[in-house]
Amino acid sequence: MTRLLLIGPPGAGKGTQASRLAEAFAVPAVSTGDIFRFNVKNETALGLEVKAFIDAGAYVPDSLTNAIVKDRLGEADAAAGFLLDGYPRTTDQVAELERLLESAGTKLDAVVLITADTDEVVARLLKRAEEQGRADDTADVIRHRMDVYAEQTAPLIDVYTSRGLVVTIDGLGAVDAVTDRILEALAERGLHATVTI
Ligand code: ADP
């Protein structure tokens, strides 16, 4: 029954850590970025609607993003916990998540903030561009995504900090080392993984 959020700038390694943490806590990882990319790739109605925003490094409108998260968290496998990666990213999304949790009679256990040095994350994203060819991993779009993060998402950290939920983790270093840091910090808060990874 663990409900976690992962927050961090583009390139901090959220996606990689999300799937590992989800496995460790035996909960589904829900990534809004992955859901959007899947829909773009398959040219669904949602995909066609969101493609231009994503390619430009802009946020998808809250109405669309909130709707897909509401649907996804309403699925059976999310009833006993979840790990949200890349959501909420705006104050409106924070409010929507609050409503969803309240109506389910549940609450968040922790917000994992993965930090990373800007030069390092830009270098990582440019490398990923070569490897995966993501349309939003060009130098200009990366810079824009960082700005949008600083403006719209970084302020959420204060909101969750004031609720005593934030666990800050340095995202630099080997993938395993970062996972261990997160698991250790969560265990210190009484949140123990159920599966050894
Ligand atoms: P990154 O964190 O590296 O930017 P993501 O996969 O989390 O990668 O997101 C990729 C893109 O998907 C974002 O730039 C944005 O266009 C869209 N997106 C993902 N999550 C959200 C969200 N919660 N709200 C609005 N747009 C989102």
Average of pLDDT: 96
Low-confidence stretches: none
Order of strands, widest sheet: 2-3-1-4-5
C-alpha Rg (nearest Å): 16 Å
Number of beta-strand segments = 5
Associated small molecules: adenosine-5'-diphosphate
List the secondary-structure elements in sequence, H or E: EHEHHHEHEHHEH
Shape: globular
Count of alpha/pi helices: 8
Label the CATH architecture: 3-Layer(aba) Sandwich
- Would you give the CATH topology? Rossmann fold
Percent helix: 55-70%
Whole-number total of structural domains:
1
Largest sheet: 5 strands, parallel
Distance between the termini: 18 Å
Q: Quickly give the structural class.
A: alpha/beta
Q: Going by CATH, what is the homologous superfamily?
A: P-loop containing nucleotide triphosphate hydrolases
Level-1 CATH class name: Alpha Beta
Percent strand equals: 5-15%
What this model shows, in words?
This protein is of the alpha/beta class and 197 residues long. The protein has one domain (2-185): 3-Layer(aba) Sandwich (Rossmann fold), CATH 3.40.50.300. It has helices spanning 14-25, 32-41, 45-56, 62-73, 91-104, 118-132, 139-162, 175-188, and strands spanning 2-7, 29-31, 81-85, 110-115, 166-170. It has a five-stranded parallel sheet with strand order 2-3-1-4-5, with helices on both faces. Helix 1 (14-25) packs across helix 8 (175-188) and helix 4 runs parallel beside helix 5 (91-104). The longest helix is centred in the C-terminal third of the chain and has 24 residues, at 139-162. The radius of gyration is 16 Å and the shape is globular. The relative contact order is 0.21. The mean pLDDT is 96. It binds adenosine-5'-diphosphate. Adenosine-5'-diphosphate binds next to helix 2 and helix 3.
